[in-house]
Amino acid sequence: MGNLRPITIGEIDYANAWPLFKSFSRHARELNYELISRVPAELNRLLHAGELDVSAISSFSYGQYSQDYVLLPGLSVGSIGRVHSILLFTKEPLEKRLPRRIAVTTTSATSVNLLKIIMAMRFECEPEYVPAEPKLQHMLKDADGALLIGDPAITASWQREGLHVMDLGEAWNDWTGLGMTYAVVAARRTAAEKQSEELSAVFRALHGSKDELLGQPEALIKLACERIGGEETYWSTYFKSLRYDFDEKLQAGLSLYFKYAKELSLLQHEVDLSFYEEQSPQKVNE
């Protein structure tokens, strides 16, 4: 491939993104690349700063900078219903008492703003949101609720000790009837123009990894048990609950999320989903 500099790729460092990345190297053997693994908030920053060419990022971050990015079709982390790893922990059930203060994770933008949308528009509640490190007991010392995402949310859900838990994927689906996309794979428009051959190879390798691991999820389940703990049955349900194809239902849910975010002034502009066009059978038109 023509570019001497390796194409830089951001990998979300949570189990929910493993299908996109854990077999990536097997499908990218001819590609000169550097893979950088971080939490979503850090990847959001790196892609925006131009330190990454393509990355899995928070969907909200795409909304903020959509004019600079193109989405890679058929690649996302979403759910239609329960997501299991984006959870609001509260000391009392919401039906009994709405929270006045919620500690929120600092590791992702999509989930925090999804919570703000659900609380404001579904529950007509506007609590104070306090950024905090993702440690549940510490978060709840001075707050009525705590929002955790990713692997910390999963392990906390196994040891919730009487706390009440709202799964934000389930809450969104119950309210809107739509799916929700928490992370997308986006490339900088400059990379799509100047590194088109490399980006095409990245696109194919991510699809190859996704197809391989979702077709044979035993490797994902084993890895999750080894690294995070839990039972095989839990992880089997977990990976089956997630959607990685970014189909029309998930796109519709994300578009509604962006619409509500604009109405609440969480975003300052309307957002269109703009897709990278790959000349292959997997091509998806904008």
Q: Brief description of this entry?
A:
This protein is an alpha/beta fold and 286 residues long.
How would you describe the overall organization of this protein?
It holds the Pfam family VitK2_biosynth. This protein has 286 residues and is α/β, with parallel strands linked by helices. Helix content is 41%, strand content 22%. The protein has 12 helices and 11 strands. Helix 4 (110-122) crosses helix 7 (168-176) and helix 10 (218-227) crosses helix 11.
Which characteristics define this entry?
D-Maltodextrin-Binding Protein, domain 2, 286 residues, alpha/beta, 11 strands, six-stranded mixed beta sheet, 22% strand, five-stranded mixed beta sheet
Element layout with pairings:
Blueprint: E1 7-12, H1 18-21, E2 33-38, H2 40-48, E3 54-58, H3 59-64, E4 69-79, E5 86-90, E6 101-105, H4 110-122, E7 128-132, H5 136-139, E8 145-149, H6 150-158, E9 164-167, H7 168-176, E10 180-188, H8 189-194, H9 196-215, H10 218-227, H11 232-241, E11 242-243, H12 248-263
Parallel strand pairs: 1-2, 1-3, 6-7, 6-8
Antiparallel strand pairs: 3-10, 4-10, 4-11, 5-8, 5-9
Going by CATH, what is the homologous superfamily of the largest domain? Periplasmic binding protein-like II
Q: Report the span from N to C terminus.
A: 27 Å
**Sheet with most strands:** 6 strands, mixed
Tell me which CATH architecture of the largest domain applies here.
Answer: 3-Layer(aba) Sandwich
How much of the sequence lies in strands comes to 15-25%
Total beta strands: 11
Shape assignment: globular
Radius of gyration: 19 Å
| Total domain units | 2
- The helix/strand series, from N terminus to C terminus, equals EHEHEHEEEHEHEHEHEHHHHEH
Helix content: 40-55%
CATH class of the largest domain: Alpha Beta
* CATH topology tier name of the largest domain: D-Maltodextrin-Binding Protein, domain 2
- Rounded mean pLDDT is 93
Output the strand order for the largest sheet: 2-1-3-10-4-11
The residue ranges in which pLDDT falls below 50 over 5 or more consecutive positions are 279-286
Number of alpha- plus pi-helical segments:
12
The chain-level structural class is alpha/beta
